[in-house]
Amino acid sequence: MQKAYDNAPLTEDLDEMAFANDLEGRLTMVVRAYADGDAFEIDKALGHVSWTRRMKRKRILDLIAEYEGPDEED
Q1: How crowded is residue 48: how many other Cβ atoms within 10 Å of its Cβ?
Q2: 2/59: higher pLDDT
Q3: What is the reported pLDDT for 10?
Q4: Residues contacting 56, CB < 8 A, separation 6+
Q5: How far is the first Cα of the chain from the last one, in angstroms, to the nearest whole number?
Q6: Which own/partner pairs from 8-15 qualify as long-range (CB within 8 Å, at least 24 positions apart)?
């Protein structure tokens, strides 16, 4: 049986910023974890949602999105 966190709405098409802005997606992740009933999965889901919201609130996700990486000139 796959765990709720593995079935989370966070996919390759939905990056961390999109997930942070997706209230329904965050709720779905938590609801699936609670439906599974595994305390570890509930903690992972709540932790991921909390982490994502904190990163958004502190604008760290904005900084990550703007960062393109160092120029590699030889």
Answers
A1: 19
A2: 59
A3: 45
A4: 17, 20, 21
A5: 50
A6: 8/32, 8/45, 8/48, 10/48
Q: How many CA atoms lie within 13 A of 72 on its CB side?
A: 2
Q: Is-contact 19 9, C-beta < 8 A? A: yes
- For residue 2, give both structure tokens: 């796959």
Q: Tens of pLDDT along 23-67?
A: 999 999 999 999 999 999 999 999 999 999 999 889 888 887 787
Q: Give the CA-trace dihedral at 12, 47, 27, 37, to 10 degrees.
A: 110
DSSP-assigned letter for residue 12? T
